Amino acid sequence: MKEFELINRYFTGRGIARRDVDLGIGDDCALVRVPESCQLAVTTDTLVEGVHFFADISPRALGHRALAVNLSDLAAMGAEPAWVSLGLTLPSIDAQWLEEFTDGMHEIAEYYNVQIVGGDTTQGPLTITVCAKGIVPQGKALTRSGAKNGDWIYVTGPLGDSGLAIEARKQNWSIAEEHLENANKRFHFPSPRVAAGQVLRGIATSAIDISDGLLADLSHILKQSGVGAVIHADKVPTSAALNSLKNDDIRLQLALAYGDDYELLFTVSDDNKSILEAKLQQYGVEPVCIGQVVNNDGKLELLYHNQTMPLPNIGFEHFS
């Protein structure tokens, strides 16, 4: 199988066909229509074997994950996902691997009404680059720069499970099979909070998705908003799997600083707090308040049962 045979077999004619796509796979560019009074939100993520995923990850999980992490970025901006282009670099062509990989990608694309409209295939070390595009009403996008003094800080769900899955494998931790299975599912098949992001439009003052760790991603909001924050570490939501760890220091490190959670972290004014909680609950999201914005120019204070605790090593950063 050669490049264009691969494209025709696994991508052309598969998945949904959106009405706003005038020209999809097969030309030098795709042609899409952005609705009037809307802005185009664009994000790109690259996943590299050995850096973002283990070599023995299932192809279906990898296809899902590659798209999900991009949709999470769109969710953080309050955008509706619409179109995706894929850059796929493969060491060689493995028909079964490609079948499973594209099944995973098409499944999540169809679930979120996203059409794969183009991309590129090349030969080399396994690397997946996804460029996702979404639509957001003019002037309604969520950003990192709107947090105000007195705003409340929320997350949309439990943190630390992906870190647990990774470190349990690296360190050969002894964990109950049920807990390990749940942690691996959160890592391999993240669920981007797309509906929640759209609910937050016009209500939240700032937002970001948690990819590099709670404290690291919060620091982006604080820097761009010119504010500080007080976070209550004991209020950060965690799963039964993470709570099964007996070492509190490790558990807090994973929840506060590990990343790959793809929950949303956002701020909301006191006036909008109640309405936000009610609206998110309609979508099955139980937001958890973990702290408050304070006007002290970027300082982050971490409390544990109301006692000051040192900041853990914060987040993941390439080239660090």
CATH architecture of the largest domain: Alpha-Beta Complex
Looking at CATH, the homologous superfamily of the largest domain is PurM-like C-terminal domain
Uncertain spans: none
As for the number of domains, it is 2
Specify the helix fraction band.
Answer: 25-40%
Structure summarized in a few sentences:
34% of the residues lie in helices and 25% in strands. It is an alpha+beta fold.
Question: Could you describe the 3D structure shown?
Answer:
The chain is α+β, with helices and mostly antiparallel strands and 320 residues long. The protein is 34% helix and 25% strand. The strands form three sheets. The protein has a seven-stranded mixed sheet, sandwiched between helices. Strands 3-6-4-5 form a four-stranded mixed sheet. The longest helix is centred in the N-terminal third of the chain and has 18 residues. The chain is globular. The two termini are 40 Å apart. The relative contact order is 0.16. The mean pLDDT is 93. Keywords: ATP-binding, Kinase, Magnesium, Metal-binding, Nucleotide-binding, Thiamine biosynthesis, Transferase. GO terms for molecular function: ATP binding; magnesium ion binding; thiamine-phosphate kinase activity.
